[in-house]
Amino acid sequence: MQALFPILAVLIAGIGVALQPPTNAALAKASGSVWLAALISFAVGTAALLVIWLADRTPLSAARGAPWWAWLGGFYGAAFVAAIAFATPRLGLAVTLTAAVASQLVTAMLIDRFGLLGLPQQPITPARLIGVVLVILGVIVVRRG
């Protein structure tokens, strides 16, 4: 039961990940700029997080001890949002998201394998490798379908 909440949170977040590209693509189309669409997306997200953070009351100084690379998350997020908003109307949502998931899984396996970014090492097992290969094959199948 303890693992149920994180799984539900990720499943709900996954719905948002599927809704975000067409939402941002529509904004990019209307505005004529992927960059403006990404900026608006982040501004709205920042406003929402600001309200939640103000209610949470964690002091800003709490982030002081974070390693230098921990500050790059917003950069990755901005690049992802812009790239997905750009690719979705050109490739379609299913191809865009399966390609994104495939690249995320390959990267995640490498991060796990070497215990990068403060995470514990996890081996690349045959089952995990098969799973990632199946996702990559899924990208090809969805793209050709």
Automatic annotation (TrEMBL):
Stored SUPFAM superfamilies: Multidrug resistance efflux transporter EmrE
Keywords, ordered alphabetically: Membrane, Transmembrane, Transmembrane helix
Name this protein carries in UniProt: Transporter family-2 protein
Pfam entry (one): DMT_YdcZ
Transmembrane domains' residue ranges: 34-56, 68-87, 93-111, 123-142
InterPro entries xref list: EmrE-like, YdcZ
Gene Ontology cellular-component terms listed: plasma membrane
Protein origin, superkingdom: Bacteria
Organism lineage string: Bacteria, Pseudomonadati, Pseudomonadota, Alphaproteobacteria, Sphingomonadales
